[in-house]
Write a structure and sequence with these properties.
Blueprint: E1 6-13, H1 19-29, H2 47-52, E2 60-66, E3 72-78, H3 87-95, E4 99-105, H4 112-123, E5 127-133, H5 142-152, E6 162-163, H6 172-182, E7 195-204, E8 208-217, E9 220-221, E10 225-228, E11 234-236, E12 239-243, E13 247-249, E14 252-253, E15 258-262, E16 276-279, E17 298-304, H7 309-321, E18 327-333, E19 337-344, H8 347-361, E20 365-367, E21 374-378, E22 384-387, E23 399-414, H9 418-427, E24 431-438, E25 441-449, H10 450-453, H11 457-464, E26 470-481, E27 483-490, E28 493-494, E29 500-503, H12 507-521, E30 529-535, E31 538-545, H13 561-572, H14 587-596
Parallel strand pairs: 1-3, 1-4, 4-5, 5-6
Antiparallel strand pairs: 2-3, 7-8, 7-16, 8-15, 9-14, 10-11, 10-16, 12-13, 12-15, 17-19, 17-20, 18-19, 21-22, 21-23, 23-25, 23-26, 24-25, 27-28, 27-29, 27-30, 30-31
Length: about 600
């Protein structure tokens, strides 16, 4: 199809504002799917996506629409991931579009994620079409929603607002018309050197990596020799095609087309989101800006719950093939045995991987406390160690100083939640840099340690704002921090899997809370077990885990006091052991660490 009749767009919305429902209606009304293929959340085919109501993997689908002007148009809809952990992937998916539909729920109005998504679309210089959804609901306040959208930016003052019900299909025809009327056709030169953006990829055990691309210049033909500019990988395009939403082979992909290329590359780490695909013999002069490799921000240990190491290894290897941002390496623990040190984009990413292991491979794992990567400067040889496992933290006598990662956090929240959000940020050692008013919403900019938001900061933010706040983060730099390693000793034996790194000022309170929690979460033995939190060789908190035993003093038998005491004494003889292998750790034990943060 001629590029003048191609439109590439995405739908951006706050969670539960109807993005997936509108996508379903568009595919139905353009007859992309037939009545047998219809189902809710058609593009969210993973169990974890449907369970959480968010998009994890970016998806694309080609639709053909015959407009009221008699022209046939090619609509390439690019679905985007829906969580702060995948902000980079969202930005690259939007970079493949010329326009977006800004979808707002008429019953809830403009919310935090609406503002964050709008900001991303504007940064990518996209045409933004405001669409008000759920106008048929009893609680819909269309007039107020229109005013809230207009306050976002002056560009909305002169625009027509589309009012629809994605559930019933009311007004969706006007959306289809607006797409080709308002969103510009892609610009580019078919005769120029090939320049295509890789905005996602999947792995196939037979075909290798399948790259999802958008062509900006030139064209890709069957058996073309191509090259990835960032990774320097070269390959022959054995198969090219489009998604409708199933894979359909084509002879060529031209300017404006969105499709896929089967690369045959067996290493999924060789192809990354944001890379530039070009012709090997006649490469383009410049790559797309803003490319960066997926870098894990949060690390945690995965250990098999039922000692099924081989099955866990196979499952993790398969998951990593289809998720280049998920990284792993072998790890062993004296307490837990063989396992893996895994890197994630954030806590939701960690949760998704755990759930996929359970749903797709029927594997339950023990997850250690998540932490970030520290730069540890060694005293004598001036060497810098990158440490993402607290068990590998050097002895305090060897450390000169430690640096921790800082992030820039942009929090968008309703006015009524500002005070609570600011208190949360201050508790998380946030340094307020800017505050901006956006009508009923306030945008706060903080610099804060990544370790303080790695676990449940986003969940707490959602809780105190009743789900209306949004968080956008970007890596800032590494800064000197006064952090220490906290070791946990149970029955005088060091348990390496329970070690964690904490700011020194938080140690007294956190260590006391920890040993109290461990008292009730560590499985009991027939003998009492002292549990200590040790910092720099000194015990800073201690509690004794009581024994699990038959209490002779309360068993109902009538005996003299001296005989009862004698029996209790005999029950404790030779019961104490210091062998660490005798300590069995459960997920409840690790949850005690998580609750501290």
């Amino acid at each position: 199809m001629e590029s003048v009749n191609i439109r590439n767009f995405a739908i951006i919305a706050h969670i539960d504002h109807g993005k997936s429902t509108l996508a379903d209606r568009i595919m139905e009304m353009t007859e992309t799917v037939n009545s047998r293929e219809k189902k809710a959340q058609l593009l969210d085919d993973m169990e974890v996506e449907q369970a959480h109501g968010i998009t994890v993997k970016s998806r694309t689908v080609r639709n053909y629409y015959k407009g009221d002007d008699g022209q046939e148009y090619e609509y390439n809809f690019i679905d985007t991931p829906g969580h702060v952990d995948f902000a980079y992937e969202v930005s690259k998916s939007l970079a493949a579009c010329e326009g977006v539909l800004l979808l707002v729920d008429a019953t809830q109005g403009v919310q935090a994620q609406t503002v964050a998504n709008f900001r991303l679309a504007k940064e990518n210089n996209l045409v933004i079409i405001p669409v008000i959804n759920k106008i048929d609901s009893k609680g819909a306040d269309i007039k107020k929603t229109v005013q809230q959208i207009k306050k976002l930016d002056p560009i909305f003052e002169e625009q027509d607002f589309l009012k629809i019900s994605a559930k019933t299909g009311q007004g969706v025809h006007l959306v289809l018309e607006a797409i080709h009327q308002r969103i510009p056709a892609p610009s580019g030169d078919d005769s120029a050197s090939l320049k295509a953006l890789v905005f996602d990829s999947v792995y196939d055990s037979f075909k290798g990596v399948i790259a999802y691309i958008r062509v900006f210049d030139g064209q890709i033909k069957f058996n073309s020799k191509l090259k990835l500019m960032a990774s320097k990988e070269s390959f022959k395009a054995s198969t090219i095609g489009v998604l409708t939403p199933n894979m359909k082979t084509v002879e060529s992909l031209c300017v404006g087309d969105v499709g896929y290329v089967i690369t045959g590359i067996k290493d999924p780490k060789a192809i990354n989101v944001g890379d530039t695909l070009t012709d090997e013999k006649k490469p383009t002069k410049s790559a797309f800006p803003g490319y960066r490799k997926a870098k894990p921000m949060v690390f945690a240990g995965f250990y098999p719950k039922n000692n099924d190491y081989a099955a866990l290894k196979a499952a993790i290897e398969r998951l990593s093939l289809n998720d280049s941002s998920f990284q792993y390496g072998l790890e062993s623990s004296d307490a837990l045995g063989m396992g893996f040190r895994c890197g994630f984009l954030g806590m939701l990413h960690l949760q998704i991987i755990r759930e996929r292991l359970k749903d797709e491979y029927d594997l339950e794992v023990l997850t250690t406390s998540p932490n970030v990567t520290y730069h540890v400067h060694i005293r004598n040889n001036q060497k810098i160690m990158e440490v993402n496992n607290p068990a590998k933290f050097p002895d305090f006598s060897e450390i000169n100083y430690v640096e921790e990662p800082f992030i820039r956090a942009i929090i968008t929240t309703p006015v009524e939640s500002v005070n609570q959000v600011m208190k949360l940020a201050e508790r998380s050692k946030g340094d307020l840099k800017n505050l901006d008013n956006k009508g009923d919403l306030v945008v706060l900019e903080y610099n804060m340690p990544l370790s303080e938001i790695a676990y449940d900061f986003f969940s707490q933010l959602k809780s105190i704002s009743h789900g209306y706040a949004d968080l956008d983060t970007s890596f800032l730099n590494y800064q000197v921090a006064d952090v220490v390693k906290v070791e946990v000793h149970i029955n005088y034996a060091k348990v390496d899997a329970l070690a964690f790194v904490l700011h020194r000022q938080d140690v007294p309170k956190a260590s006391q809370n920890l040993v109290k929690k461990l008292k009730y979460s560590v499985p009991r033995k027939l003998y009492p077990m002292p549990t200590q939190a040790v910092v720099e060789g000194k015990a800073v908190a201690r509690v004794d885990i009581p024994p699990l035993r038959k209490n002779a003093a309360v068993n109902g038998e009538k005996r003299s006091i001296s005989k009862k005491k004698d029996l209790l004494r005999r029950q404790n003889i030779n019961k104490r052991q210091s062998a660490q292998s005798d300590i069995k750790l459960t997920q409840e034990v690790f949850n005690s660490l998580l609750e501290l943060k």
